[in-house]
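Researcher: Structure prediction, please.
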Amino acid sequence: MNTSRRQRVCVLGSTGSIGTNTLDVLARHPEQYEVFALSAMSRVDALLAQCLQWKPRFAVMPEETAALELRRLLREQGSRTEVLSGVQALSEVAAHPEVDAVMAAIVGAAGLAPCLAAARAGKRLMLANKEAIVVGGALFMQAVEQGGATLLPVDSEHSAIFQCLPEDRSTWAQRIDHIVLTASGGPFRQRDPATLAEVTPEQACAHPNWVMGRKISVDSATMMNKALEVIEARWLFNLKPEQIRVLIHPQSIIHSMVVCRDNSVLAQLGTPDMRVPIAYALSFPARIESGASRLDLLAGKDLSFEEADERRFPGLYLSWQALKAEEGATAVLNAANEEAVAAFLDRHLRFDQIHALNAEVLATVHPQAGQCQSLEGLLALDAQARQAARERIEKLRA
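Model: Predicted structure follows.
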């Protein structure tokens, strides 16, 4: 990147947890960064406040009605921020020639197109949207390579793995025996699986360690979030499925580990604060102040580990099943899960039915030959899986 001026950052999903934490880190380094573009799905008031504070060149809202309202409110405030609308506008700002870095924090498969655009444009792509790589797979990684983009993981687990490895990616395969992704276990780690049918959205969203959005909180409670992270790790670090393991670590202090071929174990530790991986992605290979509190190793907190119970967290094991299936199976799994979680949050599906729906859609929806070689094909597969999930949800509600 050009370091002779402030770096221009595009924050996709700026009103969510990752987006607001990104802006918090940026605010600590005004001499190094400026906000070029912000986006939000529908939270007009939140995006309005951010635009008035940060004065970005562009603000994007995919929904036209929301964009019109934001445009009106900004005009009343005398703001010069230009409001764009539509899904295509997300890709346009992500690939804008004046943008240096893109924080990809849009939730779900909706983040695939702008992530591909940023990758093809050779941006510093800070990936918090794991679904983009879960759905995009080989197509996404090809775009990164061909565009010359710098891909930096923002998930705390993948950032931890990345921080334990040397900058020279060509040496990774020679060093890694396997990796261990840690998981908190969420709010139901010790709950009797027989009682999970009674879980409410409020209970599922009450994570013991992290403050996150509703969708990712539910995914953490089912461990589908970790399943998606297994798939993401396969692509980020070019690993075989059997080289990726998961352990429950309730304290969320060790964020993940690399087990080397000589059996050395490298781990990254820190307080559970997303500003750490965000700051690292922004400044890599340097490090900047994040705002996170320092880990106190003398505070008396024990570090413990447990096996991930397949009876309590069956969704986790769908990740390896999807990775070993035909190309595109991971996109099917992600689409089914997004529909299942949305239905659960709307109280149309029980918590314990999320896994059953995901497993059924994964088993019945199969990609066509060559379908995963284009964005259009992947989006069509995504739509097919979503339709199958919705039909199953309607049957369960009947």
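Model: The chain has a mean pLDDT of 94.
Researcher: Thanks, that helps.
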